[in-house]
Amino acid sequence: MRFLFYDRVEKIEKGISIEGVKSFALSEEFLRGHFSKAALVPGVILIETMAQLLGWLIMYSHDFKLAAIMTLIEDVKVSSALRPGFKADIRAEIVSTSKRDTLGRAEIRSDGELIASVDRIIYSHFLKIDPEDLKERFRYYSGLKI
Amino acid sequence: MRYFLIDQITEWKSGEFIKGMKNVAMSEDFLEFHFPKNPIMPGVLLLEALVQLTGWLEAASSDFQRWFLINRVIKCNFYSFALPGDQVELEVKQISGEGSDIKIYSGIGMVKGKKKIRAEFEGEVIQLSEIEDVNEQKRFFQLLNRELVL
Fold first, then answer.
1. How many independent structural domains does chain A possess?
2. pTM of the shown model
3. CB < 8 Å to A114, chain B
4. How far apart are CA B11 and CA B4, in angstroms?
């Protein structure tokens, strides 16, 4: 299982916002056990989807000189009974950012309908990273020509 | 990867609390990408461990009639990393909603006495028979609870 919960980044604006998509398939590994009589996308996976995309926006905004790791989430809503077979449109934005941490928010829509949102998400920044390696990974993951 | 985030259930009291464990192993699939060259247990999977523990409490408290699905996180702090080799001790308590289909729980995860996660979350209580075979689930609970050993 590749623990990546977006398929493509569609739009990114430094220091402001990011948009991406993720298609949820019946073949997802996490559906093994969730559950045997009904395939339901776990709510926490929707949280991770928003968190991963916003994490990349933070790292991109700081020129890949730091890694951003989620330390707090507050006021989160997630649909609990979504069957795979839908495309999630993810949008996340930075509310404020400094050298040490970032506050942001994010939401997911499917066919225009809100299926998940997080009002407050905080990331701590870690500096022991290789910027070139991080940038290379983002290029591969996002599909963007940066 | 089988999406089972609880390895053992150690104690529970009907409608009140439940305690369990999650062992983080280097062989976990999700550590390959989280993060490359820096394996760290994803915070949301610790949250999922608390949610699954809540499901087991609902099931055990209702003779396996009920399960629990999260749909709101009021607040969740991730204090420090859970790493391969760590045994996370988890505890979930019911806060409100007794007798209702919407309940609030709070949970905590510690490694060697150090807090890793604390969460307050809300969810809906659903019919277990809609998502799992009730007898199979009961047997699985007995395995987790070490009531069933060959």
1. 1
2. 0.97
3. none
4. 18
